[in-house]
Write a structure and sequence with these properties.
- By secondary structure, the protein is an alpha/beta fold.
- Helices cover 31% and strands 24% of the residues.
- The protein has 9 helices and 17 strands.
- The chain has helices spanning 18-28, 43-52, 62-66, 83-92, 107-120, 134-144, 187-199, 314-331, 339-358; strands at 5-10, 33-39, 57-59, 73-76, 96-99, 124-126, 151-159, 166-167, 202-210, 215-218, 224-226, 232-239, 244-250, 259-265, 269-273, 285-289, 295-296.
- The strands form 3 sheets. Strands 9-12-13-7-14-15-16-17 form an 8-stranded mixed β-sheet. A 6-stranded parallel β-sheet has the order 3-2-1-4-5-6, with helices on both faces.
- α1 (18-28) packs across α8.
């Protein structure tokens, strides 16, 4: 691999989508990467996107892009039901992969893809970008450094952002549970991943996961569509450290609490808040207290690794994720959330679903 990692993104439009909002500005902000190619199954959209983002190579199929000599790293930003086919194509082409979360449409697909990548020697990472957020890494270090002492308990409450009364057309497909892109994966999945990244995995858990709203309205058209994904998810359990953990996510956005995460310890407390239930998208405010009342604790400058403004929001946090991946590929570090990490989170989500369906306590670590 050359000094610059040549990136090819699968699933790019000229005017909308996660790749447009987050991945492309992130890649263009980092000197160790070059946006070399994009693909869209609609030729006119591929050409328009290539012109919009000044990309030399535009392709109309996944096979063309993954087999291109101009691509070192394949980035998968298509909808979740297409992840397996696209990731398999990249694995077969011998390319390293950045796949948006979730890795597969359910646990079985994720396990299969992780195993295939391992057998081929592919370095696969997944878009659990909450782990790359400067504030999250500061929280992890505060806990590790003993700011709160021994962690006794933690409480997480969040909004699903979507999965409420309204959705937009881009996200409408995620309202169908068959597509593997519900709240349990997206906002809840990214948030609980941040909790586990900072405090450790659940040793055991109980859960309630139900669908309260049966329909949602597409903002652009006013059409009511069925919603079969969980819009209420409540998890309680014990972390490997022995700390008690609770989490409750609710579909939609709220006038009150949209993100509230408290960590209580023997020496102090931390309180993290945001305007929406996704720590990889919304700016986090950290407050802490030991002997005194809670006060804001700014994130030290050393946690910001990317020269990009503003230093918060989706594009910036994705850029931090790419910076970690660049270090892994060029310097041999192990900073990224890998396919193996994705499988752990998939197993946790599967355990939550089983616990909710059976009423029986579950474990998911092997």
């Amino acid at each position: 691999m050359n000094d610059r990692i040549k990136v090819g993104i699968i699933g790019v439009s000229a005017d909308r989508g996660w790749a447009t909002v987050a991945h492309i500005p992130a890649i263009k902000s980092l000197p160790q990467f070059k946006l070399a190619a994009i693909s869209n199954r609609h030729p006119d959209q591929a050409i328009a996107a290539g012109k919009a983002y000044d990309v030399l190579h535009t392709y109309h199929s996944t096979d063309e892009l993954v087999n291109s000599e101009d691509v070192d790293l394949v980035v998968v930003t298509v909808k979740v039901p297409q992840h397996k086919t696209v990731v398999e194509a990249a694995i077969n082409a011998g390319k390293n992969i950045y796949c948006e979360w979730p890795l597969g449409n359910g646990l079985a697909e994720a396990e299969e893809l992780a195993q295939k990548a391992k057998e081929k020697g592919i370095y696969g990472v997944v878009g659990l970008q909450s782990r790359a957020v400067p504030a999250i890494n500061f929280i992890k270090d505060l806990v590790k450094g003993g700011y709160v002492g021994e962690v006794l308990s933690t409480t997480l409450v969040g909004s699903g952002i979507y999965y409420g009364a309204f959705t937009d057309q881009t996200t409408a497909y995620a309202m169908d549970a068959k597509n593997g892109a519900g709240m349990i994966y997206s906002t809840f999945g990214n948030s609980i991943d941040a909790l586990c990244y900072c405090l450790g995995e659940f040793q055991e858990l109980n859960a309630t996961a139900i669908n309260r709203r049966k329909v949602t309205t597409v903002v652009e058209t006013g059409e009511e569509i069925p919603m079969t994904v969980f819009d209420q998810i409540a998890v309680t359990g014990v972390l490997e450290s022995g700390a008690v953990a609770t989490a409750h996510f609710r579909g939609g956005m709220f006038k009150g609490t949209n993100f509230f995460w408290e960590i209580n310890g023997t020496k102090g407390d931390l309180l993290i808040t945001a305007d929406g239930g996704h720590p990889g998208v919304f700016e986090l405010t950290i407050k802490g207290g030991q002997d005194n009342a809670l006060a804001v604790i700014p994130v030290p400058e050393k946690y910001f690794n990317v020269n990009m403004e503003p230093k918060q929001g989706p594009a910036y946090n994705i850029a931090e994720n790419y910076a970690r991946l660049g270090s892994d590929l060029l310097e041999g570090t192990h900073l990224s959330a890998t396919f193996e990490d994705a499988v752990v989170r998939h197993r946790m989500i599967s355990a939550i679903e089983v616990a909710a369906a059976t009423g029986q306590r579950q474990t998911y670590l092997k």
